[in-house]
Amino acid sequence: MFSIRSQLPISASVSIPAEQSQSISTIPGGRKIETVPEKEGLLVFLGTKSVGEYALNILGQNVSRVTTGKKPYDILFLHEATKQDFDKKKTEFTFPGANRSYLQSSNTDVAAAAAISIAATEMKTILPKDLTPEKYNKIYLPGDGSVILPSNSGHAAK
Fold first, then answer.
1. What is the rounded distance in angstroms from the CA atom of residue 80 to the CA atom of residue 67?
2. What's the 3-state SS for the chain?
3. Alpha-carbon distance 57 to 62, whole Å?
4. How far apart are CA 13 and CA 75, in angstroms?
5. Which is nearest to 62 in space by CA: 80, 81, 86, 85?
6. Which of 30, 36, 54 lies closest to 44 in space, CA to CA?
7. Please, which pLDDT band fits residue 34 given cuts at 50, 70 and 90?
């Protein structure tokens, strides 16, 4: 019988989110489980006037986080008007009484609607003046991946 274990030294490390970093020796042989603080991410929306059709896309960025029990990422808007537009539009996706127990529903429509509603109610919308940069370890730019063209190129800017 062939065993890969005899051919390669196996080493593994596990990270468990926690408030403070600490190492716990668990098994003789030097293996440790290290708990580290959960990294926070920030979504940055670059639009200047309105979120338009991107409201659901922005909320969707947090659906997988909500369904796995994680805190939704905050979102930074560069302009007050854009922030207000999103704050208004996200209410279209909230459902009274939606809570995390609905995420376990066997009906995927119910679970998805609950995840979107929870993301809409729990994610913080902030402006540059409210930003605490050291809080965030990751930055994401939501959108459709299209290139923004300069307005003087003969193409309409998105």
1. 29
2. CCCHHHHCCCCCCEEEECCCCEEEEEECCCEEEEEECCCCEEEEECCCCCCHHHHHHHHHCCHHHHHCCCCCCEEEECCHHHHHHHHHHHHHHCCCCCCHHHHHCCCHHHHHHHHHHHHHHHCCEECHHHCCHHHCCEEECCCCCCCCCCHHHCCCCC
3. 9
4. 32
5. 86
6. 54
7. low
**Is the distance from CB of 54 to CB of 90 less than 8 angstroms?**
no
Q: How far apart are CA 92 and CA 83, in angstroms?
A: 15
Cα–Cα–Cα angle for 9, 14, 19, rounded to 5 degrees: 155
**Is pLDDT of 2 > 60?**
no
CA pair distance 154, 108, nearest whole angstrom: 44
Mean model confidence pLDDT for the chain: 78
Structure tokens at 19: 């408030």
Cα–Cα distance between 68 and 13 in angstroms, integer? 21
pLDDT of residue 104: 92
| pLDDT surpassing 80 at residue 156 | no
User: Which stretch of 11-20, 66-75, 142-151 has the lowest confidence by average pLDDT?
Assistant: 11-20
The tens digit of pLDDT for each residue in 49-90 reads 888 888 999 999 999 999 999 999 999 999 999 999 999 999
